[in-house]
Amino acid sequence: MARDLKTLRKHGNPCGEAGGKALLCVSVEKHLAEAVLKRLGSRSLVDPDHLVTRSGDSILIPVKDALGVNEALKEVSFKLVECSPPSKQRMRVEKVPSYDLIGGVAIVRDNVLGYMGEAELIQVLRSIHPGLRAIYVKEETVDKYRTPVLRLLWGEPVEEVLVKEYGLSFKVSLGRAYYNPRLSEEHHRVASLVRDGEVVVDLFTGIGGFPVHIASLRTALVIANDLNPEAYRLLCENIALNHRRLKGTIIPLNLDAREVEGYVKVAGRADRVIANLPKWSVEFTDVYDALLRPGGVLHIYVLSYDAESSIMELEARLPGWIHMGSRLVLEYAPRAGIYRFDLAKPDHV
């Protein structure tokens, strides 16, 4: 049972009322709980020794510091109340699984179940995110569309969610089109490199992360392509969702990457090409060469166990191209990662 602090200061705690040691909890409406918990957690304000609980239509989040809470939640409607949440055993960090959170849905890799039981996994994720709608296990990624095979572990089936990246809205179809929430920062980072007036070609765009970010920041022409019809549908919807924020123009295409050059007549005119197809991107170097103007830039994403070896392979496939830099974008597996390599086409070509 939770009591408002003003009431408690006035009347005190009634004699005989059951409960353990009184703590402070942030009381928020259910639809705000996930965002509030994330904000408090980022500032280490959540009490790690007690469980998040429900009280009627509200969620109670045990906290450590009232002053810090007021500062962290300036723009949020909440109450700071006394509460007696059940205690929990401190979980060791290595027991918290790696997972992705997409619009209130948690997705974990199937290897997590090799060291964690299903019931324990559900309990851990729901204690971290009390507002979860569902938990899925990603069993594999299949076919040329890079779509994941998802198995519902807990909750109601969820087919489509809405996510935010830097204030931009994206519809995501779970299990039917490629989307990785960990690329949000990368979408924005690459978009920031684009200059006004550029012609950009994104050959494997998925639901449109790179194009929408670019067009929101720059007056660029972005040709966005994906072979997956479902990804193309979402790309078009995401362009429409964000149209008021777009400075640039996005042309959506549903083609094989090798057909883009002839369809939109951009051969040798693109200022920048984005190739986010990590397992197979090196197989399309002839396409990048045909699309880019001399001096144009290629951002190519490669699944690599050795970045130096990948650089050597790219230099062999694209002789004379200048390696401008590289960065690890995502950790993929032990000793493997997805890297972005930035290369410039030589001016003399």
UniProtKB/TrEMBL annotation:
One MF term in the entry's GO annotations = tRNA methyltransferase activity
Annotated InterPro entries: MeTrfase_TRM5/TYW2, SAM-dependent_MTases_sf, TRM5-TYW2-like_MTfase, Trm5a/b_N
Task: Give GO cellular component annotations, separated by semicolons.
Answer: cytoplasm
What's the domain of life for this entry? Archaea
* Annotated Pfam families: TRM5-TYW2_MTfase, Trm5_N
Q: Which residues span the membrane?
A: none
Query: What biological processes does GO assign it?
Result: tRNA N1-guanine methylation
Q: Taking every annotated instance into account, which residue ranges of this chain make up the domain SAM-dependent methyltransferase TRM5/TYW2-type?
A: 99-347
CDD domains associated with the record: AdoMet_MTases
Listed A to Z, the keywords are: Cytoplasm, Methyltransferase, S-adenosyl-L-methionine, Transferase, tRNA processing
Name-wise, this protein is: SAM-dependent methyltransferase TRM5/TYW2-type domain-containing protein
Organism per entry:
Desulfurococcus mucosus (strain ATCC 35584 / DSM 2162 / JCM 9187 / O7/1)
Lineage in the entry? Archaea, Thermoproteota, Thermoprotei, Desulfurococcales, Desulfurococcaceae
